[in-house]
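Reply to dn_fold:

You asked what the input looked like. This is it:
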Amino acid sequence: MTEHPDLPELQRRLARFAAARNWQPYHTPKNLVAALSVEASELVEIFQWLTPEESARVMDDPDTAHRVRDEVADVLAYLLQLCEVLGVDPLAVLSAKIDRNERRFPTAES
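and this is what came back:
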């Protein structure tokens, strides 16, 4: 079984990768948000003209599945870099958002 790195380790790897290439001056919040938007759009493009049924089976085709995984990785990479630059803990803010949504949209049992 492959061990999965944690988010802080992935953020450190991304930071080292950028530093080794002297990319930090370009990793401003504005640029990272723009890059995140571009990568999210590239993910959308894969699904753009698919029916709901086709989109549910998108991972069945190895070439398309590879493209989806690559774009998901790009989106996550830019999001993690943005969080690092802004000092945002992505897991903490996600947890807080889920808490707010659970209060905002209670179930019938709540």
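The chain has five helices and no strands.
Hope that clears it up.
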